From TrEMBL:
Transmembrane domains' residue ranges: 52-73, 85-108, 178-196, 217-237, 252-275, 287-305, 311-334, 346-364, 376-397
Keyword Ligase found: no
Name under which the protein is recorded: MFS transporter
One Pfam short name: MFS_1
InterPro entries named among the record's database cross-references: MFS, MFS_trans_sf
Top-rank lineage group of the source organism: Bacteria
Record key words, sorted: Membrane, Transmembrane, Transmembrane helix
Organism expressing this protein natively: Streptomyces beihaiensis
Length: 410
């Protein structure tokens, strides 16, 4: 087991690489709004228009549009380079969000909210671009790349842990549009600064007739199915926890309780990054998914046996500790299976699967809450975790065969 000094040295080593600090800080600024945009839009629309149904429908449409457009944007990033694509894509997204804000503020018809918010689908996968830089810089250092991937996952958890809270604070204490305005400013500033770090940018790879989508890589479809089920865990946990807190008269604490799950994942991710992985990622991924499924029984047991929000928070903290290792290992496997020159597209497909899973999980969790109550609804994230295991095992089997075939002498 590594000591605290060893863990610190592992991460310090990453930032001795020339340019690493600059692109990491700028990417953090660009990525932070990802946890703010959704809650900002919901708060803005519901606060001004007085309709949560409209707010939910608008944000859901943006989520679907992002799932469709995201892989195409990532393909252009691989083909033309990060700076050439990320900057115009971000500016288009920012204009769409600003247009949404103006339509909401000035009372434009409801359909304009959907039309303007669709433009936000061009937002580039900033986390994927940062991981692609690490993969380029550390292509001959698997242990260092494992640490970098763990760090990136911890950053993701930090953004989604603090982003919604800050957005809600801005919208509540200033004015309904404040969260959206700050999100836009951070995103544009961060992406412009990130794109300016050209020394660490991976080279572009032109597509040829032989270039195939990463979806056709052996082992990729079942891996993406596992990501889809993992996303359903997140989506159902959010809805169910809000409903559980509301049923016990503590709705205001729902965000803090959910943040414990992200905090557990963040801490586990940092520790996991300092540990030398045993075995290849295709073998570790099913084990991590199995651990995630096992720990996901804790929120259900805490809710059913105690009915206490404090016990639930502790259960979510522990359950979250399996999330980061699962995501880190899954992303490592995505990097390994994705053909050369298509890494941004491959990782964006994984994010797209997660977003689709979040949408499905939210719908299933909400339905379960309505028909069986919030306590029983904790069976949904448990079932989603169980559903992630079979495709992970299938992906392991197919991935092993594919990698062995590539390694075999001609």
């Amino acid at each position: 087991m590594p000591t605290a000094t060893t863990r610190t040295a592992s991460y310090t080593r990453l930032f001795t690489i020339p340019g690493a600090r600059a692109f990491t800080v700028s990417n953090l600024i660009a990525r932070f709004p990802q946890g703010m945009f959704g809650i900002s839009a919901v708060t803005m629309i519901s606060g001004v228009r007085g309709s949560y149904a409209l707010a939910g429908a608008v944000t859901a449409s943006g989520l679907v549009a992002n799932a469709v457009v995201g892989p195409w944007t990532a393909r252009l990033v691989d083909r033309l380079g990060q700076a050439r694509v990320a900057v115009p894509a971000t500016l288009i997204s920012a204009c769409g969000s600003l247009a949404l804000l103006l339509c909401v503020h000035f009372g434009a018809p409801d359909w304009t909210l959907f039309a303007t918010y669709l433009a936000s689908a061009t937002t580039p996968n900033t986390g994927g671009m940062s991981r692609a830089r690490w993969a380029h810089l550390l292509k001959d250092e698997p242990q260092a790349l494992h640490t970098a991937n763990s760090f990136e996952q911890a950053v993701d958890e930090l953004c989604y842990m603090l982003g919604p809270a800050i957005a809600a604070l801005l919208c509540g204490t200033l004015f309904p549009e404040a969260g959206t305005l700050v999100s836009i400013a951070l995103m544009v500033t961060g992406v412009l600064a990130f794109a300016a770090q050209r020394a660490t940018e991976p080279p572009a790879h032109a597509r040829t007739r032989e270039t195939k989508t990463p979806l056709r890589a052996r082992g990729m479809p079942p891996l993406l199915a596992s990501f889809l089920a993992t996303g359903a865990i997140f989506g159902s946990l959010e809805v169910t926890t809000v409903a559980f807190a509301d049923a016990h008269g503590h709705k205001a604490w729902a965000g803090a309780v959910l943040a414990l799950q992200a905090a557990g994942s963040c801490m586990a991710g940092l520790v996991y990054g300092a540990v030398k992985p045993s075995g290849p990622p295709e073998r570790r991924h099913p084990l991590c998914v199995a651990a995630m499924a096992a720990l996901m029984t804790l929120p259900l047991l805490a809710a059913a046996l105690t009915g206490s929000l404090y016990a639930l928070g502790g259960a979510l903290l522990v359950a979250g500790m399996a999330t980061a290792p699962t995501m880190v290992t899954g992303m490592s496997l995505i990097q390994r299976l994705t053909p050369e020159g298509q890494l941004n597209e491959g990782m964006t497909l994984a994010v797209t699967a997660l977003l689709g899973g979040i949408a499905c999980g939210s719908a299933l969790g909400g339905t379960m809450v309505e028909h069986a109550g919030p306590t029983a609804a904790y069976a949904v994230p448990l079932a989603a975790a169980a559903c992630a295991l079979p495709p992970a095992l299938l992906g392991y089997a197919r991935g092993v065969r594919a990698l062995r075939r590539e390694a075999a002498p001609a």
